[in-house]
Write a structure and sequence with these properties.
The chain is an alpha/beta fold. The protein contains 7 helices and 10 strands. It is globular, with a radius of gyration of 18 Å.
Length: 318
């Protein structure tokens, strides 16, 4: 999805990779998601030119039926679906180098079906279609993401805004893969800034915008055989966290094959990340207590925590 200069961040329309918020469920599948366009006009929005966002809101066309995480078919994105009533927490998702938001829809659309508005900006100098690509621009992306959050907060306070009316702008989480994970971590360089309540770092952890020692709950997901961002980089970032943190390691896996439905580990990644978001943004204690079980897959995953208020079962012996 592309956007011309002068449009506001979040001015997306229905299309490939659109993610939104479902009406209920944990790891729901088959939900209809309603895509909407954001509003524009602010100077700050204009400053974010060429940062398109994939946006959608809850569908009122019916409640999503609970299903096991990781089916090959995800929620359906349907333009014009009626909106569900109420406001929903927001997840800002950052892509990696030479990627696009739509390429992460297998994960983000399922988060949406579990009850979140998902916003996925395409960063102007690191996305797959960038005209002036440079990996060095990753250092600027945490600030870009914060500007987008401030814009969304303003939309949430604007009466009658078609997107803002469905966002609970007091409840944000940030997440990202690879360089998007570095971006996510960089957003916490100043501690635990409102309104972001949690972060998910997938195959990331490098320092790009100052040392980050988050107080907010953090979840790290990493393949143990990742050669692009080796797992020790993610482990080091995990160790620096000052607040509750968890680390899901996928044994023998690389830089992100576990993000593809049907591949080993996708079910565990989807369930664990969804549980984490529902705990941190909905205060869902049942989701918190599901974390160790949903993360577990003998021979495939290991799950460790620091200061997380939930017991982690001892590893099974073969």
């Amino acid at each position: 999805m592309s956007r011309t200069r002068g449009q506001a961040p979040g001015s997306g329309t229905a299309g490939s990779g659109t993610a939104g918020s479902g009406t209920a469920g944990h790891g729901s599948a088959g939900a209809d998601l309603a895509a909407v366009s954001g509003s524009g006009g602010s100077r700050e929005a204009t400053a974010l030119a060429s940062r398109p966002s994939v946006l959608a809101t809850p569908s009122g066309s019916g409640q999503a039926a609970p299903a096991s995480p990781g089916p090959k078919r995800g929620p359906r994105v349907r333009a014009g679906a009626p909106f569900a009533a109420g406001r929903f927490p927001v997840v800002l998702y950052s892509h990696g180098l030479r990627s696009l938001p739509a390429l992460h829809a297998a994960l983000t659309s399922r988060w949406a079906a579990a009850g979140f508005v998902v916003v996925a900006p395409a960063y102007p100098r690191t996305n797959q279609s960038a005209r002036s690509y440079t990996r060095d621009d990753v250092r600027n992306q945490p600030a870009d993401a914060w500007r987008l959050i401030r814009h969304l907060v303003r939309l949430g306070a604007r009466p009658g805004d078609p997107l803002g009316a469905h966002m609970d702008v007091d409840r944000f989480a940030v997440a990202g893969h690879s360089a998007g994970g570095h971006t996510t971590l960089g957003m916490f360089a100043s501690g635990q800034p409102w309104p972001v309540r949690a972060g998910i770092v997938i195959a990331g952890g490098r320092i790009v915008a100052g040392l980050s020692r988050p107080l907010a709950p953090m979840l790290f997901v990493h393949g143990s055989a990742d050669r692009i961002v080796p797992e020790p980089i993610g482990r080091a970032a995990y160790a620096r966290c000052l607040g509750p943190a968890a680390f899901l390691s996928l044994t023998g896996q690389g830089h992100g094959e576990y993000l593809t439905p049907g591949r080993p580990g996708f079910a565990q990644v989807l369930a664990t990340t969804t549980d984490f978001l529902r705990w941190t943004l909905y205060a869902d204690r049942a989701a918190l207590h599901r974390l160790p079980t949903d993360a577990a897959a003998p021979g495939l995953t290991t799950f460790t925590t620091r200061s997380l208020p939930v017991p982690v079962p001892a590893p099974r012996r073969s």
